[in-house]
Write a structure and sequence with these properties.
The chain is mainly α and about 450 residues long. The chain is built from 19 helices and two strands. It has a domain of about 90 residues: Histone, subunit A. The protein has a two-stranded antiparallel ribbon. Pfam families: TAF, TAF6_C.
Length: about 450
C-alpha cells in the first residue's frame, strides 16, 4: 500500500527542529512528525469550523481558532486578535519556498495631516443628583453599581470591625458596607434591640405578653422610626425564611409587618417589593410549624393574618405600584388552580384573591374555573371524607369569596328568591359541591350576579 501524500512540508519540520537544537533528524522521524502535525492542524480547523457554523458565519476568524484551541486544551495564540480581516502577503524565498506575512496598512500622511481635528471636549462642569431617596439609592449612572460597591467597600472582619448596621437585622456575618451609610442614634439601636427581643420572647408570662403587645403597638404609632424601616423589613424577611417551622415566630413577624404598614408616620413604598415575599410565604406555604404537631388552627390563623396583610398592601399601594395588584392576584390564582397543591395552600390562595381583588376578582378569576375545580373538591372528599377540617375550611373560604359578590348574603323575601331553574343553572355553572351551597343560600341577587357573569 502506497504511503499517503502529506500536505505539510517536511522541510518545515527540519527547520523547527534545528531552531530548538536538534540538527539531525531521520527521514522516518520527520515523516511521522509531519503526519502528527497535519492531523493536529486538521483537528483544530474542524473544531474552529464548528464555532464558525454555530455563529452562523461563512468566514473563519481568529476568534474561532482561539476557541478551538481552548476546547482542545491547547494554549491559545497571542497577538492575532483583530477587529478587521487580516491580509496576508506572499514573498518567495526561492523555488517552492513561499513566505507569508501580514501586510501592514499603508497610511497616507497627506490625508492624515489634512484630516479635520476632533471635537474639543466639553469644559468641566458639576451637576447635582440624588444620592439616596428615603434611604434607598436610585439606580442612576452617577451612583456606584452594586458590583463596584462590593469590590471597593469591603468591611474588615475582626475586633476592629463595626458590625452594628448589619447586625441590627440579625445578620452576624457582615460582608459589605451598605451603599448608603445609615447613621443611627444609640436610642434607635437600643429601641430596635428591645423590640426584637420582646416580640421573639415565647414566654407566656403575663408581663412578657403585655411587653410584646406594647412593642407592636409602639411600632404601629411611634414617630421617628423611618430610619429603622429597612432593618425591620430585613429582620422580617430573614426570620420568615429561617423559622418556617416555628409558628410563633411567623405569627410575630406578620404582626410586626402589620404594625409597620399601619404606622401613618412611615413611608414604606420603596420597601413594598421586599415586604411582599415573606407575607406570601405565610399565605401560600405548604405547611408551618414542627412536623407531627396538631397546630391546624394556628396555621389557618396565620394564613388569615397574611391574607389580610396582602389585601391591605394591595389596596393601599396599588396606585403607586401599577402592576402590584395584578401580580399578587396572578400568583394566588396560579396556586389555586394547581391540583398538586395542598388544601391549605388552596385556602391561602382563595383567601388572598378575595382580599386582593374583591368581588370583581371572584367573578372574573374564580367563578369560571369552579366547574373544573370540582375535581379537586371531589377527590379530597373521597380521600379525606366530607368532615375533614381542611376541606371544610377550603369550602368555607370559597363560599366567603363568592358571597362578597352580593351586598347582602341573607335570604331575599317577597318572591325574589328566584326559581328552581335559576338554581339549576347556578349549580351547573359552579359544580355540585359549591353550586348546591350557593343555591341553598336562597339569595336571588347573588344567583343573578353569578348568571350575569357567564355572558360577560
Amino acid at each position: 500500500m502506497a504511503d499517503p501524500k502529506l500536505v505539510w512540508n517536511q522541510e518545515n519540520i527540519r527547520d523547527v527542529a534545528e531552531s530548538v537544537g536538534i540538527p539531525n533528524l531521520s527521514d522516518e522521524t520527520v515523516k511521522v512528525l509531519a503526519q502528527e502535525v497535519e492531523y493536529r492542524v486538521g483537528q483544530v480547523i474542524v473544531e474552529a469550523m464548528r464555532f464558525m457554523h454555530a455563529g452562523k458565519r461563512t468566514i473563519l476568524g481568529t476568534q474561532d481558532i482561539s476557541q478551538a484551541l481552548k476546547v482542545l486544551d491547547v494554549e491559545p495564540l497571542y497577538g492575532y486578535e483583530s477587529t478587521r480581516p487580516l491580509r496576508f502577503g506572499e514573498a518567495s524565498l526561492g523555488p517552492g519556498q513561499p513566505l507569508f506575512y501580514i501586510e501592514d496598512e499603508e497610511v497616507d500622511f497627506e490625508k492624515l495631516i489634512n484630516a479635520p481635528l476632533p471635537k474639543v471636549p466639553r469644559d468641566v462642569s458639576f451637576t447635582a443628583h440624588w444620592l439616596a431617596v428615603e434611604g434607598v439609592q436610585p439606580s442612576i449612572p452617577q451612583n456606584p453599581t452594586t458590583a463596584e460597591a462590593r469590590a471597593n467597600e469591603l468591611v474588615p472582619k475582626g475586633p476592629g470591625a463595626n458590625p452594628t448596621l448589619g447586625a441590627l437585622a440579625g445578620n452576624d456575618n457582615v460582608t459589605f458596607k451598605p451603599l448608603v451609610k445609615h447613621v443611627l442614634s444609640r436610642e434607635l439601636i437600643l429601641y430596635f434591640d428591645k423590640v426584637r427581643a420582646a416580640i421573639l420572647d415565647e414566654s407566656q408570662d403575663p408581663e412578657i405578653v403585655i411587653l410584646r403587645k406594647s412593642s407592636l403597638k409602639s411600632v404601629q404609632s411611634e414617630v421617628g422610626l423611618q430610619q429603622l424601616v429597612p432593618y425591620f423589613v430585613q429582620f422580617v424577611s430573614e426570620k420568615v425564611t429561617h423559622s418556617i417551622n416555628n409558628l410563633f415566630v411567623l405569627r410575630q413577624m406578620m404582626e410586626l409587618t402589620q404594625s409597620v404598614t399601619e404606622n401613618k408616620n412611615l413611608f414604606i413604598e420603596p420597601y413594598i417589593a421586599s415586604l411582599v415575599p415573606p407575607i406570601l410565604t405565610c399565605l401560600l406555604g405548604r405547611t408551618f410549624g414542627a412536623p407531627g404537631l396538631d397546630n391546624l388552627k394556628e396555621q389557618y390563623q396565620l394564613r388569615d393574618l397574611a391574607a389580610s396583610l396582602i389585601g391591605h398592601i394591595s389596596n393601599k399601594y396599588s396606585k403607586s405600584s401599577g402592576d402590584l395588584q395584578s401580580r399578587l392576584a396572578r400568583t394566588c390564582l396560579k396556586y389555586f388552580l394547581d391540583p398538586t397543591r395542598s388544601l391549605a395552600e388552596h385556602y391561602g390562595a382563595i383567601s388572598g384573591i378575595t382580599l386582593i381583588g374583591g368581588p370583581s376578582a371572584i367573578l372574573t378569576l374564580i367563578l369560571p374555573t369552579m366547574k373544573t375545580y370540582e375535581y379537586v373538591l371531589t377527590k379530597a372528599q373521597n380521600e379525606r371524607g366530607a368532615n375533614d377540617e381542611s376541606l371544610r375550611m377550603l369550602i368555607g373560604a370559597i363560599m366567603k369569596g363568592i358571597m362578597t359578590i352580593a351586598e347582602s348574603p341573607t335570604q331575599m323575601m317577597n318572591g325574589l328568591n328566584g326559581n328552581a331553574a335559576e338554581g339549576q343553572l347556578v349549580e351547573e355553572y359552579l359544580g355540585s359541591t359549591i353550586g348546591s351551597r350557593v343555591v341553598a343560600l336562597g339569595n336571588h341577587k347573588l344567583n343573578k350576579a353569578i348568571l350575569d357573569s357567564i355572558d360577560k
